[in-house]
Amino acid sequence: MNLPAPEILRGTLDLLILKALSWGPSHGYAVARWIEQATNDALAVGEGTLYPALHRLEERGWIAATWGASENNRQAKFYALTRKGRTQLRAETASWQRYATAVFAALDAPALD
Amino acid sequence: MARWTRFRKLFGLEPKADVDAEIDFHVEMRIRELIEDGETPERARRRALQRFGDLDRTRRECVAINERRRRHMDRAEFLTELKQDLGYAVRMMRRTPGFTAAALVTLALGIGANSAIFSVVNGVLLQSLPFRDAERLHQVQMLYPDGTRYSSLSAPDFMSVRADSRVFEQIEAGDTLPLTLLGAGEPREINGAFVSGGAFDMLGLQVALGRGFTAEENQPGRSNVTILSHGFWQRVFGGDRAVLGRSITSGGINYTIVGVASPESVLPDPADAFFPLTFDQAYDATTMRGRRSEFLSVLARARPGVTAAAIDEDLTRVGLQLETAFPETNGGLKITSTPLREMIVGDVRRPLFVLLGAVGFVLLVACANVANLLLARGSARHGELSVRAALGAGRLRLIRQLLTEAILLGLIGGALGLVLAYWGTNALVAARPADLPRVDAIRLNGTVVMFTLGAALLTSLIFGLLPALQATNEHLLRGLQESGRSGGGGRTHRMRAALVVVEMALAVVLLTGAGLLIRSFLALTQVDPGFQPGGAMALRVSFQGGEYKGGDQVRARVDQLLERLRSLPGVTAVAAGNVLPLTGAGPMNDFAVDGAPPPPPDVNQEIAVGGVTPDYFKAIGAPLKRGRLFTDLDHAKSPAVALINEAGVRRWFPDQDPIGRRVLSGGPRDVVGIVGDVLQRTPGQPAIPQLFLPYAQRTSRTVRIVVRTQGDPLALAPSVREQIRALDPNLPLADAVPLQDMVARSIARPRFYTSLLTLFAAVALMLSATGIFGVMSYAVAQQSKEIGIRMALGARAADVLRSIVGRAVALAGLGVIVGIVAALALGGIIRSQLFGVTIFDPTTLGSVIAVLLLSATLASLLPATRAARIDPIKAFRES
């Protein structure tokens, strides 16, 4: 937490949210916690960005929300991947992998002659 | 999309509360976790909030996203349901083609007729006049002590008003005269408008070619220039741009063409060419320049925001000043004004709005009829609707579906109506009375289309709402299965009966109006015109310029002309004069009886004066009542004589014999005979006092020639023309018309209004008869079992017949009572158009009642015979 966290890339957060929900429906807090743990909190996804992102994904129809009881029996809003969201997750994951491979390949490449 | 709807209904939360709850939950969870990690509750809360960041901004952002989503969902949901409803409506329309066709035809007729009449009203009455700031233009008028308004001012009075009034920005004058034009192909008679310097500017008239008049050109001696109207330029010069600099000749004066007006630049009195107005020696110093020589039409533009009252006050003040300054000429005369729009369309406004109201009634009848059809179909659809209700469709949803069907019907009906309106408008313009103003502004434009759309939507609501409410009433929603055939039967039937009563009442109002107008029109055609139009024709000839220097030359030429025409085969009488029946009473002159006490100074004692050749009365077929007619011995140098009409005798010689008396009009004259009254304007306007002088003693340059023949007057026209051409090829001829046509033209307006109102009343009657037919057929079908029982119990076919017809007549009777009351209440609206009848005319009211009851009887006969043929056994078996 001492180093400044890198700015999260646009679209990356959407991908992480979709990934978080790929294990099953969960509420916003759980999504936030999962991202914190999965990234060792290196991306510092603030709630101020997470929640609007969740609502935008809902608006696009990639995730759907229902109110249900949380693990401690409180009313919580649960998000679940829709079929459209699952397709989107697959597509974005593949694209991220291609992107990262390309960037790493470039970083490992020898100097210009 | 249905998924979102379900969620929304599930949580039933507003976006804001939804977001708040979600964020609260998050913060709470974080606090709990921090406490579990060993923080104190306070520190945990602080850290949780700190970590979250700007809570309010996040909240707002989320709410905005959700609200946007909800709007999209609502719209999507609305569109989906609309699509469903429309699909449903189209299927329904296809499945019941008979119903659909009946409803669409009814609506198309109703809406189309409204749009057609509206396009006329819009063009003539609603669109602004084609002048700059037209709503501020007023016509200045003289108000005489007897209450008559004259729309012309003398030149000095015009100058005084222009100098002294304060409420107007600009005051201009014009004088439109018939001119004989040479130098543009055939000699022709044109209307020349002599306008004061600022007239083009005030009215916003533009020149399309060349230039406007300069200030100097309104000075005497500089005024020999002209601007052609666009129409005249096209017609006579074929739109040749080289006309500039050429000249036209009239009355021996050459006018150089300096410009051509743009197509939309026309005066209230259309003119073929414009000339600068000057006040020089050409106007006779003693008469034309006198304050009581009124020949200028004066228009003025009020300053912005000036009220009618202020204008009136200002002009009254100017009038009083003139009265004080010139008591001899202006005593008792007031100055006033009328908005220009009122001058142009004032007398057609009332009748046109009456027609629009009448056609609106027709649309209401059409609505009632379609509502009736929908109610009947609603009963048939009872089963289908209850299934939908049982499946969870709420009442509002069902009403919305039924209204969608109604609106679809209305819109298709409106579209068809627009097509009908296109034809209708053209037909109206073709059938219009020739003197209907502003006809060129009548067209089917965007305003008319919007009106049609509005009418279609409003109509849909009117005819759709009641059936929709009825079809989805509590019975349906409670899922009560009444016996299939009579779903909500009694109530529906009562509602339909009520609609029929309304239709009948509306039809009665229209029929009464039409009846009264028909009676008035018949009375107008029965008016004795005082002359015999059959077999006579008239035309106009002008003697101007070179050859015709003075009265002697004109008289000589008129004599030759009459001589030639008299020799044509079949001609029985020929005459010339400056008057003609039905074209106005002619110029007015002061009048007094010699020896009688002079009229009080503030009474303008006038008489219409005409100059006619000896055979005039024979030619038009008007009788001499007493004394003698003119002869060739009454020439220019013989003693001054006059004939007076009976209206004049009644006015000035009530108990005396005017023959041999001396009257003063211009100069002293001896009355030698009394002629019968001849209609001067329209049959609705009684003849005013008129004095006839021998043409030889009152010569005019423009004369009306009347030729009476034994045969068809029109067949004679070519040879009449030939004779005149042979005499002088430069004489312009105009207005050749059989007198019979002039009679028809004089009642063209009442004929137009009457025909339209009659047409509307007939449509309304037909529709309401259809309505009664529908209701009785339905009733018979509903009650076949009951009728069967009655017949089984011994009722005869005739009894059944009588009872069904009786019920129809009772409904119609109720409609008649309501309608007559309404008609009498509304009667005042058309009172001004009635002639010879009052709104309480028993013949009209009696006929309307008879027609209504008769049509109800006829309309119910078919269902009644069907009822009378019911076989009791079959009726039981079927039920």
Largest sheet of chain B: 12 strands, mixed
CATH architecture of chain A: Orthogonal Bundle
CATH C-level name of chain A: Mainly Alpha
Oligomer: heterodimer
Report the C-alpha radius of gyration of chain A, rounded: 16 Å
How would you characterize this protein structure?
- The complex is a heterodimer of chains A (113) and B (879).
- Chain A has 113 residues and is an alpha+beta fold.
- Helix content of chain A is 55%, strand content 14%.
- Chain A has a 3-stranded antiparallel β-sheet with strand order 1-3-2.
- The longest helix of chain A is centred in the last third of the chain and has 26 residues, at 83-108.
- With 879 residues, chain B is an alpha+beta fold.
- Chain B folds into 4 domains: 2-95, no CATH class; 96-130 and 348-487, no CATH class; 146-331, no CATH class; 544-730, no CATH class.
- Chain B has 26 helices and 24 strands.
- In chain B, strands 1, 2, 3, 4, 5, 6, 7, 8, 9, 10, 11 and 12 form a 12-stranded mixed β-sheet that branches.
- In chain B, a hairpin with a 2-residue loop joins β8 (247-250) and β9.
- Chain A binds chain B through residues 27-29, 32, 46-48, 51-52, 55-56, 58-59, 64-67, 70, 72, 74-77, and chain B through 3, 7, 10-11, 18-19, 21-23, 25-26, 28-30, 32, 51-54, 57-58, 61-62, 65-66, 68-69.
